[in-house]
Amino acid sequence: MSGYRIVTLADLDRIEVPGSPVLRPLRHELGVTAFGINAFTGDETGDLVIEQHREEGGPEELYAVVTGRATFTLDGVAVDAPAGTLVHAPPELLREAVAAEPGTTVLAIGADIGKAFSPSGWESFTLANAYRRRGELAAGRAIVVARLTGSPSDWKSHYNAARFEALAGDTDAALVHLRHALALNASEVRKLAPADADLDSLRSDQRFAEAIA
After folding, report:
1. Do 26 and 38 contact (CB within 8 A), yes or no?
2. Nearest one of 168, 173, 169, 166 to 193, comparing CA atoms
3. Mean pLDDT of residues grouped by 10 in the chain (213 residues)?
4. Which end of the chain has fewer surrounding CB within 10 Å, N or C?
């Protein structure tokens, strides 16, 4: 038998974003392409492990509490969920979960109903920017490039590619991606670009001013 991987929670990176659960990027680590799968950890009681959201028009999800204990709130109803609990969440369900014990980890598995799986932009950009903040620019850029390859019509993918190319000092490549992003969603790009510090290296180039004017 070949091609398999075995990992433990301890093997997984910790992606920390202020105000959000700690992401344990399982799908990225294993290279899973058929469905979404990640884990979220709450280190202390009360820490968020699943943000409040619905997936209207999006994926059907299954949550598994693998360590600790969580409290889920499902359409306003609180549910105690010790380790071993499985929670099925159809897209329209309003869901949220917090750690009820320190060291609680919830595994989230999801896929769009009747559609081929594509990693979410949220996952890709969260990982890419976390690596950038650590000084691992090449690793972050690789994630953005992979996202762009799979979603060439997504303005956010081009915009984030422009940011990473600008940070890497490749002005020409950054401007190419910025123009693509503008072509796809000019209003949003023109809101973001003027104050985006990641694009500072482009500001002395007249082409940048002309692009976002």
Report:
1. yes
2. 166
3. 84 90 94 93 97 91 98 98 97 97 97 82 90 92 91 93 95 96 95 95 94 90
4. N
pTM for the model stands at 0.81
Residue-level pLDDT at 48: 97
CATH number of 9-112: 2.60.120.10
Give the model's pLDDT for residue 2: 67
Q: Which amino acid is at 199?
A: L
Q: What residues pair up with 203 in beta bridges, in sequence order?
A: none
| CATH number for domain 121-212, candidates 3.30.70.270, 3.40.640.10, 1.25.40.10, 1.10.10.200 | 1.25.40.10
Query: From CA 161, how far away is CA 80, in angstroms rounded?
Result: 42
* Domain extents in the chain: 9-112, 121-212
